[in-house]
Amino acid sequence: MSGVTPVGNDPSTAGSEATAAALQTQTLDYDAFLKLLVTQMKNQDPLEPMSDTEFVAQLANFSNVEQNIITNDRLSAMMTANALADASAMVGRTIETAGGVSGTVTAVTIVSDGSYAVLDNGDTVRLGAGITIT
User: Fold this and answer.
1) Is the CB of residue 99 less than 8 Å from the CB of residue 90?
2) Three-class SS of residue 51?
3) Which pLDDT does position 43 carry in this prediction?
4) Alpha-carbon distance 41 to 53, whole Å?
5) Is residue 97 packed enough to be buried (19+ CB in 10 Å), middle (13-18) or exposed (0-12)?
6) Residues 117, 97: contact at Cβ < 8 Å?
7) Short-list 88, 102, 91, CA closest to 131
8) Contact by Cβ (8 Å): 109, 123
9) CA–CA separation, 117 vs 119, rounded Å?
10) pLDDT of 90-108, one tens digit each?
């Protein structure tokens, strides 16, 4: 975003962003799990097929993956609703950064990497550590 005033490097958020990125790349999604299960069934030894208990266990895992996806979608929707409520509460408030940038919030933009306050003087400030709200 142009005109963004950095608030400072917060080591706690930098670590959590890196952790989230690492977890996202290591997570097996629904489609990949299904493809893996089908491929395993196609390539099993016909003389020694998978036992019933192994198959039931894999189906249970499949069900757990599906439920986790639904839970994550609902959690994401709740977090978005919470961010929107927080953003609406910021409009009309005065904020000041640790770097001395201040102004009245006229709008809040929510993007994947966080929330940004648009001030009445045209500056854009990332909301996070080091912000004073009055």
Assistant:
1) no
2) coil
3) 82
4) 14
5) buried
6) no
7) 102
8) no
9) 6
10) 899 999 988 888 999 999 8
Say what the pTM is. 0.47
Q: Are strands 124-126 and 4-5 parallel, antiparallel or unpaired?
A: parallel
| Dist CA 50 CA 18 (whole Å) | 39
Helices (H), 11-132: 11-26, 30-42, 52-90
87-91 long-range contacts (CB < 8 A, ≥24 apart) are 87/115, 90/117, 90/127, 90/133
130: left (phi over 0), alpha (psi -120 to 50) or beta: left
Torsion of CA 87, 93, 94, 95, to 10 degrees: -20
| 66, 58 contact by CB (below 8 A) | no
Splitting the chain (134 residues) into consecutive groups of 10 residues, what average pLDDT does each group show? 45 46 55 78 78 78 84 90 84 90 90 87 88 88
